[in-house]
Amino acid sequence: MNIEELIAIQEEIRKERAQKPKQIRCCTASGCISGGAENVKKSLNEAIKEAHLDEEVEVRSVGCMGICGKGPSMEIDPETTLYHNVSPEHTPAIIASLNQTNTTENLPEKGDLNHPFFTYQRLIVRENSGKIDPESIDDYIAEGGYQQLHHALLEMTPKDVIQEVITSGLRGRGGGGYPTGVKWSTVSKMPTQQKYVICNADEGDPGAFMDRAVLESDPHRILEGMAIAGYAVGANHGYIYIRAEYTLAIQRLEKAIQQAKRYGLIGSQIFDFPFDFKIDIRIGAKAFICGEETALIASLEGKRGTPRPRPPYPAIAGLKGEPTLINNVETYANIVPIIREGGDWYASIGGKNSKGTKVFALAGKVENNGLIEVPMGISLRTIVEEMGGGVGGQGMVKAVQMGGPSGGCIPNHLLDTPVEYDSLQKLDTIMGSGGMIVMDQNTSMVEIARFYMDFCKEESCGKCIPCRAGTVQLSDLLTKFINHQANEQDLDKLEVLSQMIKETSLCGLGNTAPNPVLSTLHYFREEYLSLVQSTSGQKNEC
């Protein structure tokens, strides 16, 4: 494969699409599939055949369209007509509407692309999602796929690539927010011959589905980003570590790797350039702790997935003791547009110390839930109340939980906070990988704290005592409050124990496990006090 062949495929696919004036894009990400998207697509093809529109209309499977709570979704081009909650019963009317013979009866809910849910978004990571067939390498190439890998290999040095990533200001999207270019530079400077690149796709936060959707919708984007990273740091072997629950993402990744190998875009002498890069998939056994990079490496090596003390960091001594670059799915998905448009372009988007966009899984008590990608610096209120539509009815947004079990709960009066690493850290929470769960006025914040503590308790690897024993004790204390058995001294115990666990645990799981407790104690202390026993032994009324 050479650049001329890539461009030839690109032009051929575009010509084929132009032959059919109508394109119907059906979401076949896992959320829509669970709602019957495959039957919808089958029914659409049958209706097209019956209407003798085979030469005019093409039905294509595409990835996530974002508005996941209203799936199955589909869009008709060139009119850009969006439909939600589509069922097979709707398809005859949809096809009839293409001939303008039926424009109202039995049509599904029509989406509004001018709604803030869509207009506030800026798609960089997800620019191909909902547009291309994730199981077709030709579709990816038609959108310029693998051209930036060619550009990096034949027109840039590894230092040039790293400098563009540094200039972009991209920070790791897995939760830590470490500068991506600095990490790449560290790995590249290591003198050893063998280095590795790892994609951390072990997304385990409750309510988070960003990485899964990206992998299901645009798997070649990750492969190309990893290959560019391998060239930049001097690695010839990459691994994608993905949790076993993501069956569709695994299937599409496996197919993407096979296709890329067949086209010579992964493997030996890529683009006839002296650069080899192969990618293997490793499936994790659903352990949340393996999202921590040293535990992930241990699991990759066939060991029990437990963290180890750092330093040395994986960039110095990682997989098999060799320098290892670890980034998450969203981080690698940003690489192709950074190389294509330049680091300065990327740095012009977002806030002062938080560049680019961020993908969030907007879920919970909110009208419009799904996947969004917004510029850094946008306010939480804009996301929740305008894009998400609020909680609906007479309800009120009480809090937003960010960062999964490692994050905190942000109360309504602080929702004007910009979504940036530093501003969120000031609220004692983190951006995390991108989970964003909205809670209404009926939500018990004490029960929310216990939910996340129970999660951490179950997922603790047990290697260090503060996390292993401390999470159990915190869970028991929270249960005392919920059962109206706690006293005011237990409030002090909650805070002291939480701080001890944060400061003495071995890894990030234990260091951040108390965050939901501390944030709810800080902003919703009255809820804890309302559950405390009175001095007479009677329960206080809420």
Short structural description:
42% of the residues lie in helices and 14% in strands. The chain is an alpha/beta fold and 542 residues long.
List keywords for this structure.
single chain; 542 residues; alpha/beta; Rossmann fold; 24 helices
| Helicity range | 40-55%
Sheet/helix structural class: alpha/beta
Supply the CATH superfamily name of the largest domain.
Answer: NADH-ubiquinone oxidoreductase 51kDa subunit
* Overall mean pLDDT: 94
CATH-derived architecture of the largest domain: 3-Layer(aba) Sandwich
Oligomer: single chain
CATH class of the largest domain: Alpha Beta
Examine the coordinates and then state which fold CATH places here, giving the name of the CATH topology of the largest domain: Rossmann fold
Terminal CA distance reads 69 Å
Number of helices, where a helix is a run of at least 4 consecutive DSSP H or I residues: 24
Radius of gyration: 25 Å
Question: Beta-strand percentage?
Answer: 5-15%
Global shape: globular
Q: Summarize the main sheet.
A: 5 strands, mixed
* Number of DSSP E strands: 14
Whole-number tally of structural domains: 4
Order of adjacent strands in the largest pleated sheet: 2-1-3-4-5
Low-pLDDT windows of residues = 535-542
Describe this structure in words.
With 542 residues, the protein is an alpha/beta fold. It is 42% helix and 14% strand. It has helices spanning 3-18, 30-34, 37-50, 91-98, 116-119, 137-142, 147-155, 158-168, 180-189, 210-217, 219-233, 247-262, 293-300, 329-333, 335-341, 343-347, 380-387, 421-425, 445-459, 465-482, 488-504, 508-512, 515-523, 525-529; strands at residues 22-27, 57-62, 74-77, 81-84, 109-110, 196-201, 237-243, 278-284, 324-328, 357-364, 370-375, 397-402, 408-411, 435-440. A hairpin with a 5-residue loop joins strand 10 (357-364) and strand 11. Helix 3 (37-50) crosses helix 4 (91-98), helix 7 (147-155) packs across helix 15 (335-341) and helix 19 packs antiparallel against helix 20. The chain is globular and about 75 Å long.
